[in-house]
Amino acid sequence: AAMLPPALDGTVLRILATSDLGATTVPLRTSYGPGGTCAGVVSLLDAERERQPTIWLDVGDLVVGSPAYPLLGERPWDEVAALPIAAAAVGNHEFDDGVDALLGAVPRLSFPLLCANVDIGLPGSTLVDTASGPIGVIGLTHPASDRFSRAPRIADWHHRVGELAGELRRDGARWVVALLHD
């Protein structure tokens, strides 16, 4: 299994972050060589958890880009549903098939999908328990998702982040992380 460099002295929680995961199950060719896979990230997460408390956060676009869509005509939500992601933000491509399709996929996920800057019925934040204490997570889709996909208009979200961070701190968050899909 691949290993990350050791954490710096004093590190109490390591966060692995992914973006544009695309439900990748086989290494795809990229300009720098073969790309990573969901299984590769899980393997890295397992190795890091043996060294120190570690969580996985995703910054969006979980399923778009997978060859499954052009081949099968459906998004591979089941491929990502059980991944050990602690929380994920909605990416702009989560809206490609419309809000109803996105909301239809959410109940299958084993992790919270967050969207603080578009009111579509998803939570804007969550509190994740870790071995080092609770971490607050705020999820934000791309601020121009309404121009890039079928997302509703993006709300004025700058003040919302501060409000959510305050609520998470009041609820016991040791840290607060904002996931911005950009």
Describe the structure.
It is a single chain. It is built from six helices and nine strands; from the N terminus they run βββαβααβαβββααβ. The protein has helices at residues 38-51, 68-72, 77-80, 99-105, 145-148, 158-170, and strands at residues 14-18, 29-30, 33-34, 54-58, 87-89, 113-114, 125-128, 135-140, 175-180. The strands form three sheets. It has a four-stranded parallel beta sheet with strand order 1-4-5-6. It has a three-stranded mixed beta sheet with strand order 7-8-9, covered by helices on one side. The longest helix has 14 residues, at 38-51. It is globular, with a radius of gyration of 16 Å. It starts with 13 loop residues before the first strand and ends with a strand. The mean pLDDT is 92.
Short overview:
With 182 residues, the protein is an alpha/beta fold. The chain is built from six helices and nine strands, in the order E-E-E-H-E-H-H-E-H-E-E-E-H-H-E. The chain has helices at 38-51, 68-72, 77-80, 99-105, 145-148, 158-170; strands at residues 14-18, 29-30, 33-34, 54-58, 87-89, 113-114, 125-128, 135-140, 175-180.
Question: How do the helices and strands line up, and which of them pair or pack?
Answer:
Blueprint: E1 14-18, E2 29-30, E3 33-34, H1 38-51, E4 54-58, H2 68-72, H3 77-80, E5 87-89, H4 99-105, E6 113-114, E7 125-128, E8 135-140, H5 145-148, H6 158-170, E9 175-180
Parallel strand pairs: 1-4, 4-5, 5-6, 8-9
Antiparallel strand pairs: 2-3, 7-8
| Rg, nearest Å | 16 Å
State which percent range the strand residues make up.
15-25%
Largest sheet: 4 strands, parallel
Distance between the termini: 29 Å
Q: What is the overall shape?
A: globular
Write down the secondary-structure element order.
EEEHEHHEHEEEHHE
